[in-house]
Amino acid sequence: MTSTATSTLPQLLADEVTRARRERTAIDSLTERYGDALDLATAYQAQRRQRPGALVGWKLGVTSRAKQAQVGVDAPIYGFLGPEHVLDLGEALVTGTHIQPRCEPEIVFVMGRDLTGAHVTAADVLAATAGVTVGIEVLDSRYRDYRFTMPDVVADNASAGRFVVGTPRPVDGIDLRLVGVVLEKNGEVVATASGAASLGHPAAAVAWLVRALDADGEGLRAGDVILSGGLTAAVPVQPGDVVVASIDRLGSVELGCR
Ligand code: 0L1
Ligand code: MG
User: Fold this and answer.
1) Tens of pLDDT along 192-244?
2) Residue minimizing CA distance to atom 2 of ligand 1
3) Rounded to the nearest whole angstrom, what is the distance from the C-alpha of residue 138 to the centroid of ligand 2?
4) For the chain, which has fewer Cβ within 10 Å, the N-terminal or C-terminal residue?
């Protein structure tokens, strides 16, 4: 464990969140303890210290009104996706490996080429996209009862847990604002939305991510998988649950829990 005498605040925060994740024990809001010292820039530094060597991609968070209302944060954030977050198609979610998992439907982009820049637009994102598909993100906040501030949740890698994605298809001819989204749990429809729920257009959400990364001299790489933001409120899951996300033109993906 890192000692307070020798560690910077971002490292202390990263250590606390990492321990909570490893021990599957929820912690109280870090903002309550660190106050104004835990600003957004410090939170992103803490997040960066948790990254694995190689990334699979990125996730947008809190991009829809439904999500903002659910967690009380009112602006988008981002997190990283590493190999440890990937669930294969047909692989069950073992809920006991998480603290308080919740599932939400996502429109997923797979990048066809690198994309960087401070002025990237939704059109630029679509031009750089190899394919789009449906996904389910499993969230798992390390904060008790999902009670957090914006810096808290950024330091916790935007509640990233696991994710599963369908088969990408070309985006040509699909208006991602208009695609209908249905989230089912155990055969019942629990939430609906359209693609426009994520910052007006899922590609606009990805453009926001590119601009945010650019501020730190980073960007998207060809092959990156991007979760463009939960389109509905997230639904809690427990062993025995089956969650299905269906998105018009993009297909369906199913996740069983045990
Ligand atoms: O992907 C998301 O929208 C989640 C970001 C963090 C908020 C949450 O834990 O629901
Ligand atoms: Mg999400």
Assistant:
1) 999 999 999 999 999 999 999 999 999 999 999 999 999 999 999 999 999 99
2) 61
3) 8
4) N
* CB distance 61 to ligand 1 below 6 Å: yes
A 10 A CB-CB count for 33 gives 13
Ligand nearest to the CA of 199: 1
- Find the Cα–Cα–Cα–Cα dihedral 49, 88, 125, 156, rounded to 10°: -30
Distance from the alpha carbon of residue 5 to the mean position of ligand 1, in angstroms: 32
The residue ranges of every structural domain in the chain are 3-256
Q: Check if the beta carbon of residue 84 is closer than 8 Å to that of residue 105.
A: no
Ligand 1 lined by 159 (C-beta under 6 Å): yes
Q: Are 237 and 95 in contact (CB under 8 A)?
A: yes
Measured in whole angstroms, how far is the alpha carbon of residue 249 from the centre of its chain? 22
Output the six-digit token pair for 192: 């609906």
Question: Can you tell me which residue has the tokens 């106050």?
Answer: 35
Q: What topology is assigned to 3-256 in CATH?
A: Fumarylacetoacetate hydrolase; domain 2 (3.90.850)
φ, ψ for residue 108, nearest 5 deg: -110, 130
Q: Is the pLDDT of residue 2 over 50?
A: no
Predicted TM-score (pTM) of the model is 0.95
At CA 167, angle to CA 108 and CA 201, rounded to 5?
A: 25
- Are 194 and 180 in contact, with CB atoms under 8 Å apart? yes
Q: Which residues contact 210 (CB under 8 A, 6 or more apart)?
A: 115, 116, 117, 120, 124, 125, 219, 220
CA-nearest of 203, 192, 258, 251 to 228 is 203
What is the spatial distance between Cα 243 and Cα 227, in angstroms, rounded to a whole number?
A: 17
